[in-house]
Amino acid sequence: MCGIVGYIGKHAAAPVILEGLSRLEYRGYDSAGMAVFDGEKIQIKKSVGRLKVLEELTHGGATMPGSIGIGHTRWATHGAPSDANSHPHYNAEETIAVVHNGIIENYLPLKEKMISKGYRFVSDTDTEVLAHLIDYYYKGNPLEAITKVMHRVQGSYALGIMFAEHPDQIFAVRKDSPLIVGQNEEGCFIASDVPAILKYTRKVYFIENQEVVRLRADHMHFYTVDEEEITKEPVTIEWDANAAEKGGYEHFMLKEMYEQPKTVTDTLSPRIKDQDIVIEELGMSDEEIRAINKIFIVACGSAYHAGVTGKYVIEGIARIPVEVDVASEFRYRDPILEEGTMVVVISQSGETADTLAALRESQQLGHKVLGIVNVVGSSIAREADNVMYTWAGPEIAVATTKAYSAQLIALYLLAMKFGRVRGKLGDTAFHNMLEDLKRLPAQIEMLLANKQRIQRFANRYIGAKDVFFIGRGIDYAISMEGSLKLKEISYIHSEAYAAGELKHGTISLIEEGTLVAAVATQDGLFKKALSNMVEVKARGAFVLAVTNEGNTDIEKAADYVIYIPRTNQYFTNSLAIIPLQLFGYYVAVGKGCDVDKPRNLAKSVTVE
Ligand code: F6R
Predict the structure, then answer these.
(1) What ranges make up the beta strands (E) of 327-483?
(2) Are 515 and 539 in contact (CB under 8 A)?
(3) What would the pLDDT profile of 391-439 be if each residue is shown by its tens digit?
(4) Probe residue for ligand 1, chosen from 304, 348, 374, 490 as the CB with the greatest number of ligand atoms within 8 Å
(5) Which residue owns the Cα nearest ligand 1 atom 9?
(6) Is the confidence at residue 28, as pLDDT, over 80?
(7) Of ligand 1's atoms, which has the minimum distance to the CA of residue 355?
(8) Is residue 188 annotated as part of the catalytic site, yes or no?
(9) 601: pLDDT confidence band, cut at 50, 70 and 90?
């Protein structure tokens, strides 16, 4: 996500910070800023746009003298990209400066509390709340103020903090957002990721959740959230700079797959409050939710596949008819949008030309549009009537993984919210589903841990010519995404079929050894899925099956089985897609393909 760099030492801080931030540029950001103590006060400079703008503004850091500072590249979450929303943020007296990565979930009540105490806010960010809160609790002891704030905020954060009254120290704090500190002969460093400081030092300390570090020019002290001092051992980083950018992963795609448990948590947890689902950004009253009589979901590629899952989930849970359309079709087919029709567009980049055009078309027809978008401040986010963000952070690999997973979560939340408000989801079912949702991150982690088994299997199919993915119901939606993941990065032809449709033509393509990946996670459709597997196996196919734990009957029909943990029948896509992503990835790696940048593809499709 965003980048943090801090320095305290013998050299000028600003050039070190600018250099460090430049090493994090690959992560994506929309604005940058720095705070440096100049001997009298904390000076802050920040601006929207590339880091180059900040470099020019500060003459490469020369106009910000001082050897203590913190810097930040921001990927907008709360509040659009703007100078005011860029970090660092100050308290009113400009004596405390804060940079922050992560999301403060309870920032609204905290903000209200601070406003009632006379604090004035100049940005829309959750971070500014932290600057004022620290100010509120600061009575001369920075550590005490910081830990008091840590006890009061919920969510994820990595922080760099400096106090004008303590110009010989800076602070680093972390919970659920990555942060490291490092040291060399010339000073100490804070960074949200290793590559930022690799030029200066390979001796780093990984900060654990709820730990605080006090950095001075020549040493560091570590504390718990209860202000108890602790000792930590340094780690020597052996990776080269290129590997470090990817956090040690071979490709961004693999790194992003591994970020999925966090993405799911980040998209989910801000919207679960007191055992209820609260989607403030939906902008719809219960009355309006009850008045919906049809939903159109419009998107492209993987976002469209998330939409197909959404159709099954929303229709199943909330009993609202849903039509899903590829945006390039929707915009030209003169769609019939009647009163009571809700339009939902889904897009990671928020810039996809066809999806944007579909949004505009719907608005012209007099309909409000809800955007499920990842990039804050993107065109779709700006033009949609309401935006529900997926908090996946920047996605660098062209083939989407974590943003897709976040889109599924957003759709589950919508379905459950609508089902509840419309009286289609009883208390017990609702609470069981909530518990299942909360378990998803740990279950995804478990599936990811099984990667070697999938890698071994994938190695057998490097030479495959055609692969088929089949499933029924939600499993058909998973098959579509599994098939796209394989073909777009490995260049192996693959197709997804509704399993029952195979025998209406496509089954003639099955030859001895053709791989058929069959997804069978829906208990009600299990027997039918099984007979479709038998059909293809009888014609020579090698059947890879993905099913729920306990469905051992499948071993009679499949040659190789991947079991996924049990979850609610509507959420299985979030689990079944993990082995399919890994399969596509490892086939592509085995073939030596450029996994992160497949040929002919762009991350953001801004043309028709
Ligand atoms: C496939 C993939 C694409 C995108 C599609 C829509 O891995 O990433 O199919 O899903 O181009 O892009 P967004 O979500 O940015 O609108």
Answers:
(1) 341-347, 369-373, 386-389, 466-471
(2) no
(3) 998 888 999 999 999 999 999 999 999 999 999 999 999 999 999 999 9
(4) 348
(5) 301
(6) no
(7) 16
(8) no
(9) confident
